[in-house]
Write a structure and sequence with these properties.
globular; mainly alpha
Length: about 190
Amino acid sequence: MKLEFIIAISYLLGSIPFGFLLTKIFLKKDIRKIGSGNIGATNALRTGSKSIGYATLTLDILKAVIPVIIVKVYFIEYLYIASLCVFLGHVFPVWLKFKGGKGVATYVGILCCIDIYLGLIFGVTWFVTFLLFKYSSLSSLLGSLSIPIINFFIFKGEVIFFFIIMFVLIFYTHRENIKRLLNRSESKTNIY
């Protein structure tokens, strides 16, 4: 029963569609009809409101931090299950017919809870890639790829399969972006 409860709560908290809710409440718009149609922070920036974009980013991180930290403190044996369920909740929210965000902000929250250094490595990789190329999608892909690589070489491969699974999921959620990157039609992102 304990495991089922952790799975359910982690998924439900992860499934809160903050990008959708914030644009609906404050801008009276449906974020699914703006830009890429995605409910995540990058598309929230395309609403024309930077505050909505950054609020979405912050809340998508926090909705991972809260359940994952609680599970880490009280039920550490379920840490990676809870982390995966939070992520899946964001990507496949029951409230929006299982069409959610790409999971990057939520993954950042998960990484910071598992090991703050992994969160920092992701952040630095993302930021350096973004400064060089200005593509949020490319930055997210390289940031998520850096984690299993660093985990293998520095953390001696501890739970590397979890981080490989997370990279594969992020690769999957960015499949359309990858096509656009390859044919050079991907939109650059303005975060300022």
